């Protein structure tokens, strides 16, 4: 299936989930994360959810990471498909971007080389670990700058597409895991 078709399908499916159901499913995803072997790492990058797009709520994830004394890193868009990464602390001020994404105003920048685990936003994914995002390339650009051994984890309310994504290109970065409310996919 083509990415544009999957974007349309999963935006619609996500819009049909009630805020209460999305919150419940987000908690299930976070609890499921406890089952995968990532807890010896120190630097965890996560997206900050866009509420209007009914994304997986990453606040419970951030609470879990901080409770385990992990360094939480969040992105800030700085240009055409480019992000910088900042340590999320008690003093970090967040501001909504033009796209409705909460972003740090400033803070302690963390280079990609330090990041051990990345929680990747997505709309859909397939059984090979390919993902479909919003199509701007921010995360693929970022993930290509991370170390090869950085663990990439998708978070999705929905299971994998059985049919492979047909228009994957050479810059697309595959996931290592994807967590859904029903199962853990490992690629």
Q: Please report which band the strand proportion falls in: under 5%, 5-15%, 15-25%, 25-35%, 35-45% or over 45%.
A: 15-25%
Low-confidence stretches: none
Main β-sheet, spatial strand arrangement: 3-2-1-6-9-10-11
- Rounded to the nearest angstrom, the distance between the terminal CA atoms is 19 Å
Average pLDDT rating:
94
Shape: globular
- What structural category characterises the helix and strand content? alpha/beta
Radius of gyration: 15 Å
Main sheet attributes: strand count, strand direction, barrel closure: 7 strands, mixed
Oligomer: single chain
What's the helical proportion of residues?
A: 10-25%
Helical run tally = 4
SSE ordering: HHEHEEEEEEEHEEE
Number of strands: 11
